[in-house]
Structure formats: structure tokens, C-alpha cells
Amino acid sequence: MSNVLVIAELADGHVRKSTHSALTFAREVTKAGGSFSILVLGANAKAAAAALTGFGAAKVLVTEEPSIAHPIAERLAPTVAAVAKAGTFDVIVATASSFGKDLVPRVAGKLGGGYAGDISAVKTEGGKLSYKRPIFAGNAYAWCEVTTPTQLVTVRQSEFTAAEPSGGASPIEAVAAAPIDAAASRVEFIGIETAKSERPDLGEARVIVSGGRALNKQFGEVLDPLAALLGAAVGASRAACDAGFAPPELQVGQTGRVVAPALYFAIGISGAIQHIAGMKGSKTIVAINKDPDAPIFQVADYGLVADLFQAVPELVAELKKG
Amino acid sequence: MKILVPLKRVADPDNANKIKVTPAKIETTGLEWKPNPFDEYAVETALRLTENAASPKTRMGEVTVVTFGPKETETTLRAALATGADKAIRVDCTDEQLDGDLVARALKALVEKEKPDLVLIGKQQVEGDSNQVAQLLAEYLGWPMATFAGTIKSEGDKALVVGREIDGGSMNVKVTLPAVVSVDLRIVQPESVKSMHSKPDHAYSAGVRFAALMAIMAAKKKPMTEIALATLAADSTLKIKYTSYEAPVGRKAGVKVKTVAELVQKLKTEAKVL
């Protein structure tokens, strides 16, 4: 039996969809007994929390004091730790987004608990939790146990299907933010720069259109029409990002975003280990590359050996035919 | 500025698909040892922060590299010394004795001894992929941190403005030293690191620097000390216990289609994703 605390992630005052993967974990772990609560903290948390009352949580805990307005781990960790202790939670979980990966290990340090990061599965045996983690850039999986009474976990969004509401109305309860400590007073939030895009987020898209360095400066010009037509998110290989053809936040790979859409287009991407580790969970993979020996074809369900500058516009035209 | 850079060796990550996975262990036999790429970027970042790029042989401050491992891992440290680091410390242990938490606790003791202004570390070690040492160390020290740094600008070596790579963009924070910073891929782009000693518009070559032959010879004379793990962390209890390993389910190569029309037809009727 475990009691789980889910840390919700906010963006622009709304709950990010990524949070729903941590909820799926919490449901799995508490199936055998125990309950889970959700902690929503940050600017606009009270209003945002309303979106999380229908998931079967024992409580939705909220705090939006100005000291924790920004997603700075030094500022949030004392509050998360205080809530975890007060509620006697055994497992603290967030989704392994950049938010979760930054914050949860810091909370682990505060609570003296062990941290299993970026897990892809969980199992309960004899009341003991085991976590499956990708290691060696996804070339192996390890099963591990956390040996401390309090366990800290982040879950991989692409492996834990987003939870759907289950009805009910969890009570919302206000909690106090913990006082700011010395570390927090030495970090100043300046701002967040996001590329404004009409495309969906990589973590949530049903279709992703990714491009490699071969696209050169025509990256957007070639891919955007296809992405727009399919309502797809745009991704990129590390090489395309490093060369400046695509912004870094579009990078798909072990060291970028790990994704698993229903349909993934790898266009002009050769298929380096790092990239494949980030997209091989996709349901259907299409590769378009002019090099017939490109490693990407070894993981693609459908491969087309062609010049992408001709094939992609042709694909757009073909799809438009309906 | 005094900078401490933890640096770990790993089995060649470019050939990570050649590891042998058995339920009891992962075998990396046959793979070359390489510095963990993210840590190597941290060394490069430390060098950029402590030099005037116009005369990189003079270090403005001190860069100390530290590794955890047996005697043979001194090779990894010597390579870092050859690129410009000043001194090296090896914490004597084997990988089996470590988890991220123990490394962080040992580093805390080392930081208290060495008193650096900044700990620069790779965001994750690419074998365990745990991504936690920087965060734990900062918490144990009561220091601020900036994880996943894509850019760093020094403000008079008193504070750093760090561009953190986050999902969907970047977050800028200013940390007052001493602090812990973990670095991401983009930190070794030509203009990612702005030292107070270099011209603001200086552009490096992308990537990490290579050591000249003379520097490799000179590195043999640079100080290398050894510390027992127990001296730094008396409690050797691990917080993570690995119980078994498994290989990922491989994807099979599918079919090659000849035309765009055939591709669309298969996506519609066979894969049913359109």
C-alpha cells in the first residue's frame, strides 16, 4: 500500500497535459491500496486546480503564494517537501519533463529519499515497488528499487498514457508555501522564452513531422505545409538543431524530447542512436531519405528512398487529394 | 573563479547499441572508454569561463577535475588536464559502490574541502542516465542551481546568467555564486559561454577543444591526488538498488515503398493512421 503525491506542472497558469502521465502512475501504484493526492503550486494554482478534481485524487492541494510564482526548483522544493512530510506520502511523483527532472531530485535531497528518474514502468510485488528505467540511451532497461522509506520518481510521458478523468470531485485544500531558504534567495527568475508556434507540443501530438540537417535552411519551408495539413508537431534531429536550422527545443532524441506519437515522419534524418532512442516508441514510423543505407530505415515501418525536396511537396499534394 | 568539474568515464556512447544485456548485468566489453560527453562539455565550459579566448594558455582562476573510479580512470583525468584543467582528483572506488546520491554526498564533502565558486557538471551520465547529481549536490550544499544550461554569461564572476533548456523553449535565471550548474548539449556552441575575460563577441569553434601534443606531455606533471571514497562519504548505503536488466524490444525494419502515392495508400489502408 502506498500513498502517492503527484506534483502537477503548470504553464501559463494552466495544468500541463504532461501531469496526466504522473496521474496514470499514481493510479497504477494505488490500485493495490492507498490513495493519491495532487499538489498544484505556482501562479494561478487555485484556478488551475479545478481541472484536476475529476481524477479520483483524495485531495487536490493548492498554493499560489508569490514566493513560488515561478517554476524555480529552489523555491518549490521546500514546499513540496513540507507537504510530503505533513501528508505522510511514501511516493512523490512528477512527469519527467524538464520541470520534473529539475525539481524532483532536489526534493529527494531535501527528504533524504532515493530517486528513480524517467521511469517507463512500475510494478508492485509483495507490497514493494519496482521501477523500470531506460539506461544506456535506451539500449537497455534496468529494474530498480528505491531503498529509502520515501521514494521520489519521475515518469516518462511517452510510456505512461495520459490519464482520463474518472468522475467524482476531489476536495481542493489550500496549503501554505514553505519559507524561502538561502539557496532560493540566490536565484533570480528572469524569464521564459518560448517559440510561439501554432503547432501542438511534441509531447502531446498524435503526429510528428521531424526533419534532419539535409533540410538545410529550407527546414520550415519544406516541413511546415506537411505539419499544418496533418495538425502535427514539428521535431528535429540534433544535427539540424546544432546547425541552426531548427530551434533547440524541437530536438527529438535521448537528450532532447522523447516522444511516442501514433505517426512519426523522419525526413532527411539518418537515424543516429540518440535520435532513434527518442522516437522508437512511435506506433508507425515513416522515413524519407535519399540514402538507401541510412540506419533510420531499420526502424521505419515504411521507408521511401527519395529526394525529400521533391517527395515532401508531393506528399502534401497527395494528401490534399483526400 | 575556482571551478570544480566532476568527470566520469563511460563506455563509448556512439556504440551503446553494442552493449550486451543479460538479466544479471550489462557488459560493455569491447567498447572504448570515453569521457561522459556532458561532463566533457562541462570541462570545456569551465575552460571558457576562466580564460581570455585571445590567450587561452593563461588560466584566470582554477579548474579542478574530479572523477570516481579505479586507478585506470586517471587516463580520463589526464586528458582533461591536457586540454587546460589545472589539477585532478580521483576518488578511489568502483562503479558498483556508487549511485547518484552517494556521488552527490561525496562531492559535497569535496566541495567543502576545495571551496570552488562553481561546480560545473554534465546534466547526466549517459550510462545510468539518472540526471540527479547536480540537483542533489546543490540541495546538500544549500546552493542555488541552474540545470540543463544551454548558455552561460558571467557577471564579474560574482553571478551567472544561465539560459536553461526547457521543454518548449528556454528559461533565463541568474544565480549568485557559489552555485551548481549542469550543462546541456548547446553549451559548446561557438557563442554559448561568455567569460568576463574574453571579448563579448568572441566565437569559439563548435564543440570541445583538443589537446596539443605538448600539452599532453605537460599534463603528466600536473597535480593528481587520490582520495578514498570512505573519507568523503562515511555512509556507503545506496538509495537505489538495481535488480535486473533487459534488452529493449527491437523494432523490425518494415517495407520500402516506391512512390509517395503508395506510401499514402499504405498509411491509410494498412497502418490506418491517416
Beta-strand fraction estimate of chain B: 25-35%
Mean pLDDT of chain A: 95
SS elements, strand count of chain A = 18
Distance between the ends of chain B: 57 Å
Q: Summarize the biggest pleated sheet of chain A.
A: 7 strands, parallel
| H and E string of chain B | EEEEEHEHEHEHEEEEEHEHEEH
End-to-end span of chain A in angstroms? 52 Å
Structural class of chain A: alpha/beta
Q: What structural category characterises the helix and strand content of chain B?
A: alpha/beta
What are the segments of chain B in which pLDDT stays under 50 over at least 5 consecutive residues?
Answer: none
Oligomer: heterodimer
Helicity range of chain A: 25-40%
Major β-sheet annotation of chain B:
10 strands, mixed
* Strand segment count of chain B: 16
H-E order of chain A: EEEHEHEHEHEEEEEEHEEHEHEHEEH
> What characteristic shape of chain A results from the CA principal axes?
globular
Strand composition percent of chain A = 25-35%
Q: What overall geometry of chain B do the principal axes of the alpha carbons give?
A: globular
Rg value of chain A: 21 Å
Structure overview:
The complex is a heterodimer of chains A (322) and B (274). Chain A is of the alpha/beta class. Chain A has helices spanning 19-30, 45-49, 73-86, 98-111, 182-185, 219-230, 238-242, 273-279, 308-321, and strands at 4-7, 10-11, 14-15, 36-41, 60-63, 91-95, 114-119, 121-125, 128-135, 140-146, 151-155, 172-174, 187-194, 207-211, 233-236, 263-267, 284-289, 302-305. Chain A has a seven-stranded parallel beta sheet, sandwiched between helices. A five-stranded parallel beta sheet of chain A has the order 15-14-16-17-18. A three-stranded antiparallel beta sheet of chain A has the order 8-9-10. In chain A, helix 3 packs across helix 4 and helix 6 (219-230) runs parallel beside helix 9 (308-321). Chain A is globular and about 60 Å long. The termini of chain A are far apart. The model of chain A has no long low-confidence stretch (mean pLDDT 95). In chain B, strands 1, 6, 7, 8, 9, 10, 11, 12, 13 and 14 form a ten-stranded mixed beta sheet that branches. A two-stranded antiparallel sheet of chain B has the order 2-5. The relative contact order of chain B is 0.18. Chain B is α/β, with parallel strands linked by helices and 274 residues long. Chain B is globular and about 65 Å long. Classes of the chains: A alpha/beta (322), B alpha/beta (274). Strand 10 (140-146) of chain A pairs antiparallel with strand 15 (240-246) of chain B.
